[in-house]
Each structure stands twice: as structure tokens, then as C-alpha cells.
Amino acid sequence: MNVPRHAEQALPRWRRAVLKVGSSLLAANGGGLSTRYALGLAEFIAASHRAGREIVLVSSGAVAAGRALVRAQPEAAHGLAARQALAALGQTTVVALWQRFFDRPVAQVLLTHDDLRNRRRYLNARATLRELLALGALPVVNENDTVAVDELKLGDNDNLAAIVAALVDADLLLIASDIDGLYSANPRTHADAAPIDDVAAITPAILAMAGGAGSGVGTGGMHTKLEAATKAAAAGVETVLFNGTDADGLRLLAADRLRGTRFRAEGTRLHARKYWLRHAPSAGGRIRVDAGCARALAGGGASLLPGGIVGIDGDFARGDMVEIETLRDETWTRVARGISQYAASEVRRIAGRKSHEIEAALGYSYGETVVHRDDLVCLAPQGTAA
């Protein structure tokens, strides 16, 4: 069947991206993993690195790799516990597959949705991924299938990739599939299927275009990709869907050209992040800062350091939303709010100290900032957005 092609278009501008690669692009016909399509994707990643860009890779394929290791025992391929065991066996093979293409280190990061719902673990995961990027490594993220029962059933790496894109403040979510992009119907079964190049918003009509999985290896389909694009759009991250088996398309991608489908974001990434910070519920705790610290925060671009803190009111845990106040006209006035990297008891012990003294005071450190600038939004004195 002669499937119509998507038109070539400009790729959205980006500096940091999350690239999701599904099992259909990695699994070999005879079992195990293949470099057939992984090589082209790796060349795109390498070209992006040379251009000074950062990529977090969300890679499937662990179950397929594990199955190949025990294919002499077919009974090991059935049942949830067995699939979890296969994922554990195959994880090292997935990392080894990607490491063979790069001189830079490849790091494995296993996550579950629970890790990303829990604020403390969310902060830990984000800090780890950011540090790996700062070190020049390629993080390879996957669901922790050995313990994430629900996620393994859902095969939800598309949605995981969207969550990771928000987690690391990515500019772009790239989803590599075995189909060119979104069509008005399944192009494999409908001769009149038309390519959809640009999606301004994912409406019920767009969702109705999603078909089932195109491969017997992966567990996701077009519907999960649209779900992922919806999540990314809400976080201000654009998504592009492209064919990872198309070598010419990958070369275009490295030249900032797309032959696939572009899903627009709902506003900018910064706007989405700041909106959430402005309206997320507070734990009820307040951090009080001196006038100099308040001016630095109001100027934009500054993080809250322990040296400017003069007091704590209330209680809160690491990862909680807190209000930041300063004394104005003898009244404590809210000037900012954000996510605290430290619990209230810890902030009380490091208040007024230099950042490099945190570890000495606590015996450990979660970083030099109490509230990082990416987790902070400034407010006008009356409490409205500044």
C-alpha cells in the first residue's frame, strides 16, 4: 500500500529534549535487541550532543531482551512475575546496546509513576537526571518493571516520557515510532488515510484517529502517544512524532527538520511551570527572609539560599510548597512561593549559614539552595503574580 507522506516542516527550537524509543524499533525478529534502527537514532543523539544539546532517552526493550536470554525455557515467557523477571534480566542488555554507540557514559535510571507522584522522590529523581546531564552523560530511563505492576500492565513508556519531559524541564518530547506520524485513520488498513502534520490541540476528534498497536512487540499504540502529547502540552512542552525506521527522516531531524506530526503546547513551558507553582496548594509552612534576599528573589533568576533566611513558621517536609515572606511595614508579607528542598527542621538548622556549610550542619546535603529558582515564583506584595 502506498502510504501518503507527511510534509517536511521546521522542528521546534530546543536545547533539551526527551527521546522515547519503543520496543518495535529495538526488538530483533529472532528475539533480543537489534541495532538496525538503534544506530540511526544514536547518530541523531550524537549529532544533537555535538550541537550542544541535551537528551534524556526513555528506552523500552527490556522484556524483549530478557526473553532472548531465556528463550530455551519457553515457560519463562508467561505470567506477570515472569515478565518482571525478564525485564530485570534485560535491563543490562538495553543499557549495553546504547553504550556501544557512545564515548560518553550511559546511565540507567529506573522510575515508576509512584516515584514521580511522591514529591520527595520527584525532587531526588530530577536532581539525579540534571546532574547526569551536567556530567555529560546520556541518561537512559525506563519504568522499573520489576516492581511497577500497574505500569508493566499498561506498557506506559509514552506517558512516562511525557512525565520525564516535565521533570527535567525539556523543551521538546520526541517520540520515535514505526509509523511516520498521526493519520486520519490507520494507514495500514485504510487507503484513504490522510497524514496530519500539525495538531494545535488534542480534541476528541483527534483521539478518535488513534488506532491500536502496530507491532506485536510493544504494548503501546497511537492512543498512548496522544495521551503523552496531551500531558506534555499541559506542561508547555511540544511533542513531535516521527518514524524511527526512516534513515532520511532521522537525518532531517538532526538538521532541525521534521517529517512527522507536531503537537503544539498549551502556552510556554515557563508559563505552565509558573502557573502550577503559583496555584499549587501550600503545606502551610512559611520561610521568612531578610530584605536583601527578598530583593534578590524579586529581581528574578535567584534561588533562595540559606544565608538570607531569618526564620521559619509552621512545619513542612522536603518537597512541600512553602510561602516565602519578608518584613514590610512591620508586617510579614508574602513575596514568593516555591518547593522546598529541605524540611522545616532542616531549614531551621541551616538558616543564616553559607551554602557550603549545609553538609557540615546537617551531615548531608540536598544541594546549595533551599528553594531552587526553577521551583520558585515571585509574587507582588498583594499576593498577585509579579
Automatic annotation (TrEMBL):
InterPro entries in the record: AceGlu_kinase-like_sf (IPR036393), Asp/Glu/Uridylate_kinase (IPR001048), G5K_ProB (IPR041739), Glu/AcGlu_kinase (IPR001057), Glu_5kinase (IPR011529), Glu_5kinase/COase_Synthase (IPR005715), Glutamate_5-kinase_CS (IPR019797), PUA (IPR002478)
GO molecular function: ATP binding; glutamate 5-kinase activity; RNA binding
GO biological process: L-proline biosynthetic process
Compartments (UniProt record): Cytoplasm
Superkingdom as given in the UniProt entry: Bacteria
Alphabetical UniProt keywords: Amino-acid biosynthesis, ATP-binding, Cytoplasm, Kinase, Nucleotide-binding, Proline biosynthesis, Transferase
Pfam family, one: AA_kinase
Database matches in CDD domains: AAK_G5K_ProB (cd04242), PUA_G5K (cd21157)
Binding residues for substrate: 60, 145, 157
Residues binding ATP, per UniProt: 20, 177-178, 219-225
PROSITE patterns: GLUTAMATE_5_KINASE (PS00902), PUA (PS50890)
Metabolic or biological pathway: Amino-acid biosynthesis; L-proline biosynthesis; L-glutamate 5-semialdehyde from L-glutamate: step 1/2
Boundaries of every PUA domain copy: 285-371
Reaction it catalyzes: L-glutamate + ATP = L-glutamyl 5-phosphate + ADP
GO cellular component: cytosol
EC number of this enzyme: 2.7.2.11
SMART domains attached to this UniProt entry: PUA
Reported function: Catalyzes the transfer of a phosphate group to glutamate to form L-glutamate 5-phosphate.
PANTHER family hit by this protein: GLUTAMATE 5-KINASE, ISOPENTENYL PHOSPHATE KINASE
Listed HAMAP family: ProB
The family this protein is said to belong to: Belongs to the glutamate 5-kinase family.
Protein name listed in UniProt: Glutamate 5-kinase
Organism field: Tahibacter soli
Taxonomic lineage of the native organism: Bacteria, Pseudomonadati, Pseudomonadota, Gammaproteobacteria, Lysobacterales
Gene: proB
